[in-house]
Amino acid sequence: QAIDGARKSIHVEQFVLTERGTIDRLKQAKARGVDVRVILHPMKIGDKAINEVAASELRSVGIPVRWHRWDPARLDKLHAKVGVFDGEDVIIGSANWSRQAFTTNREADVEVLSKEVAAALEDHFQADWNRSTPVPVYPPEGPHLVGPEKPPS
């Protein structure tokens, strides 16, 4: 509903964006003249680049998509799941924008109707946007990215 109701802007940061209906709604928002921008995490599972399909589809309709610039010293993730709509409505929580998160997982998201909260997250989005890259640079795969650390031997 937040995507469909947006009239000015939709700014999204997502670890995983694969849910078909959500991708289509973002494209429809762009067609309505909404400023849609998306930052994704560069992630592969095996040889599959998880967010590449969404990025390609969104870019095909003129939506700018950028990629989190991870820090090789920290091997950090863009693990955010946030959307800011029209600078006054925020949806933030644990759910990736994926079919599994929307239909299977136990997730916890909240909608915050606050211009102050939205402004703070817009500032955060803009800072991340300025640090992001136009092409994905994939972090190395390894246990540090997919699960808990191994206990010391």
Can you offer a commentary on this structure?
The protein is of the alpha/beta class and 153 residues long. Helix content is 33%, strand content 22%. The strands form two sheets. The chain has a six-stranded mixed sheet with strand order 5-2-1-6-7-8, with helices on both faces. Strand 6 (81-85) and strand 7 form a beta hairpin.
**Count of DSSP H/I helices:** 6
The percent of residues in helical segments reads 25-40%
- How would you state the average pLDDT, rounded? 90
The secondary-structure element order is: HEHEEEHEEEHEHH
Largest sheet: 6 strands, mixed
CA-CA gap between termini: 50 Å
Taken as a percent bin, the fraction of beta residues is 15-25%
Please mark out the parts with pLDDT under 50 across 5 or more consecutive residues, or reply none.
Answer: 143-153
Rg, alpha carbons = 16 Å
Q: What general outline do the C-alpha atoms trace?
A: globular
Give me the count of strands.
8
Question: What is the strand arrangement across the widest sheet?
Answer: 5-2-1-6-7-8
Q: Class by helix and strand content?
A: alpha/beta
